[in-house]
Amino acid sequence: xxxxxxxxxxxxxxxxxxxxxxxxxxxxxxxxxxxxxxxxxxxxxxxxxxxxxxxxxxxxxxxxxxxxxxxxxxxxxxxxxxxxxxxxxxxxxxxxxxxxxxxxxxxxxxxxxxxxxxxxxxxxxxxxxxxxxxxxxxxxxxxxxxxxxxxxxxxxxxxxxxxxxxxxxxxxxxxxxxxxxxxxxxxxxxxxxxxxxxxxxxxxxxxxxxxxxxxxxxxxxxxxxxxxxxxxxxxxxxxxxxxxxxxxxxxxxxxxxxxxxxxxxxxxxxxxxxxxxxxxxxxxxxxxxxxxxxxxxxxxxxxxxxxxxxxxxxxxxxxxxxxxxxxxxxxxxxxxxxxxxxxxxxxxxxxxxxxxxxxxxxxxxxxxxxxxxxxxxxxxxxxxxxxxxxxxxxxxxxxxxxxxxxxxxxxxxxxxxxxxxxxxxxxxxxxxxxxxxxxxxxxxxxxxxxxxxxxxxxxxx
Length: 461
Hints:
Layout: H1 40-53, H2 59-74, E1 78-84, E2 90-98, E3 103-105, E4 109-111, H3 116-124, E5 127-130, H4 140-147, E6 152-162, E7 165-175, H5 183-213, H6 221-255, H7 261-288, E8 296-299, H8 300-315, E9 321-324, E10 331-334, H9 336-352, E11 360-369, E12 377-385, H10 393-396, H11 416-426, E13 430-436, E14 440-448
Parallel strand pairs: 9-11
Antiparallel strand pairs: 1-2, 1-7, 2-3, 2-4, 5-6, 6-7, 8-10, 11-12, 12-14, 13-14
């Protein structure tokens, strides 16, 4: 979710004082204590007061400072700010701070529908303390796919509110022996969420002003693709009904023995073309379907090494795949089947760009991005490169549009790259393309890296 997509997110109240239920101590006549005499939670709240009012900090910088202070105060390994998308279908980690590394990054995107119990608990309580995630029923949906692989044993989450509406969550994740969350720490977690909400409220006016100046712009890219997808699926569904009748009658004609051979030949041609139409319908229906799947932690290099024989058979012997794995940890949050589909679509695209054959390079590496595309942080970048015909510069910006194809003579349906774009966007990532006519193309899929210390993520499914 880009910075501009926080338009509808916003407020909360911030006083800089103690959280609900926390005693401040002292009488009105006593002078305020020196900062060195304050408890850690009180010092942190004072720091939050300065951060949320500091107009020189960008929204992301404010999130980063808040996460650092919260992690150090609670002595937890990870603190993340997660915001709901405008349609409330996804919860995306826009900033994740890892205390042992002193690193900030973007995190994964979770489908809200996959975790109904957790989100119901968040809506019911301002703070959600889970002292033992292995047995807490509220964390059960997250346990095997997210918490255990990352070594998280205890968590303390607090909802971010806009009025009475939950718009996100601040997650405090502890790695190590399980720990308890006394009232003081629960109250402090709510103060962290309030600081985030208040900073969002201050940013809202600026974002809305920008949107007002841009009121004539078309729908955001994701909304536009979703709308086109639903329209395409509706048309494909109706067309499938007509095509079923056409193919059924053509098959009956082709099996008859009492008609001229040229009629049977024409019927067989109808069947052949009709089968291509059926494949187009399947592609349209897939493009129109919301890509849900079963996302989990996936080690990209290990997963691709396991898929490599299947991928090689998919492109053929004339196109040897040269695979280069990432040297370090390359975990992402994605459905393994979606990752396989993304790579296969791009490999087939590379194959079609080299009709005489050639090597296709598949490279995985971890990179830090400065925020020009996506949020600033670490990404696992999957690169697929060919030495084929290349793409004219004027066509690159249209590559991911539904029904747009660079192939002539009606050879392409223009949905392969559109499906790639939707799956990557659903996983919280983005796609980059570099190409030179006559020299080849390079597609880079960048997905937010998920880091942890403990057990291995999923490489099988």
